[in-house]
Every structure is written in C-alpha cells, then in structure tokens.
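Q: Okay, next protein. This is DUF1622 domain-containing protein from Micromonospora antibiotica. I've checked the sequence twice, so it should be correct. Can you predict the 3D structure?
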Amino acid sequence: MSGLAAPLAAVVSALALGVGGVVLLTVRSWRTALGVLLELLVAAGLLRLPGGRSWPALATAVAVIVLRRVLWAGLGTPAPADHQPAGGPGPPGGPPPAG
C-alpha cells in the first residue's frame, strides 16, 4: 500500500483543487468550497503518512490540519466536523431556530 499511497495522495490533492472549484461555481459559496478543499487536502495529507514515514510527511499533514482549524476559527464558523446533526438544533417538533 505504501507504494500506492504517494501517487494516490497526489491525485487527491489535484482533485481537491478541481472539486473546490466546482463547488464554488455550483454552490456559489466560498465558505463551502473552502471547507471541501480543506477536507480533501487533509485526506491527501493523511494518505501521505503511510508512504512517507518521515518527519516532513507528518509535518505536512499537521500543517494542513492546523491551517484548516485556524481558517475555520478565523471565519467564525464551526469546523465541518463540529456541525450539528442533519436534524438541526433542538429536539424534533420544537420551535424553529431563530434567524
């Protein structure tokens, strides 16, 4: 698997840029596009870990994850993993959320 991990990570990185662009053009939300881009770059960084087994590979993955967290904190929105379930806030049948 380690021989396949590096090329697969490069493919995921390239696809991240393309998918981020497609999301930006279709959804017209730069926050959503940025979220998709960062999530796929995190996946690419994690794919590099088994192939690299070096400090630079680990540092790259950590840097992408830290960048993702810093950007989401700076934007004032919760990270995608921190969002509430699809049911939305509150119990089912409760009052609709304000806003």
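A: Here is a summary of the prediction. The first helix runs from residue 2 to 27. The chain has one domain: 2-77.
Q: Noted. On to the next one.
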